[in-house]
Amino acid sequence: MNEDLHIRTMTAEDIAAAMELKELMGWNQLPRDWERFLEWEPQGCFVAECGGRLVGTTTAISYEDKFGWVGMVMVHPQMRRRGIGRALMSACIEYLERRVACIRLDATPMGKLLYDKLGFVEEYELHRWQGIAAGRGASDVVPISEEVLEAVKQFDRPIFGADRSRVLHRLASEAEVGKWVAMEGEVIQGYVMVRPGAHAWYVGPLVCRGPQWAEQLLSRALQEVAGQPVLIDVCSANAEAVELIKSLRFQPQRKFTRMYRGNNAWPGLPEYVYCPAGAEIG
What we know:
Layout: E1 5-9, H1 15-25, H2 31-40, E2 45-50, E3 53-63, E4 67-75, H3 84-97, E5 102-107, H4 109-117, E6 121-132, E7 141-143, H5 146-160, H6 165-173, E8 178-184, E9 187-195, E10 201-208, H7 211-224, E11 229-235, H8 239-247, E12 251-262, E13 273-275
Parallel strand pairs: 4-5, 10-11
Antiparallel strand pairs: 1-2, 2-3, 3-4, 5-12, 6-11, 6-12, 7-8, 8-9, 9-10, 10-13
Helix pairs in contact: 5-6
């Protein structure tokens, strides 16, 4: 490991440098993505410095005492193979193991090589798809109001596997985030959110109890950003989700591997997860 390497918690002053690193990676995040992490888990966000320059990042978020999520693991391309990624991951693992029984993440093929060595094991695959949005409205899909949001949080909890109310609340509070719920009478059958990114809109989470609801919700989300580029991550554990995204003629972009370390006693119900909230938050 480089003797000049320093791992410390991230601050708001680091966001500009983190965005420069993110652009080198070609990722889709905006400054507000970092701001959310600093709001949710200020002591779980880390940066690596070498020679006084930011050369790596990672984030952690905990969901109750059940599991935590690691995301935004980035190392400057010129600084790889120097132990920086391992040092950042060690900081996240140490932080989360004091709080949760299991640590989870969505690994890129490059990242998976490191996570295998750190004791993470495979759970299932996800695939990222990219396309141009087009859609039509659906009569059973309505915007998520503040009153309905509380019910959406309760609907989501057993499917995700833990309470992520603070994540859903923050996303729903942002004006540019589109959010809709599918109702059958007074019963929630699913919901979706779509948010802006640096290069494309991102659809997720999309969580529902059947393909008919997923199709309506996805159509409404895509209608909102019609004509613009969109990214969608799809859980391979949900065969109906895979068929739905293929019907849109989106193109596959890359693969992720969902992995975990520790006691994965709360995997949720992936058969109802059509699209996650994002590789960095689950």
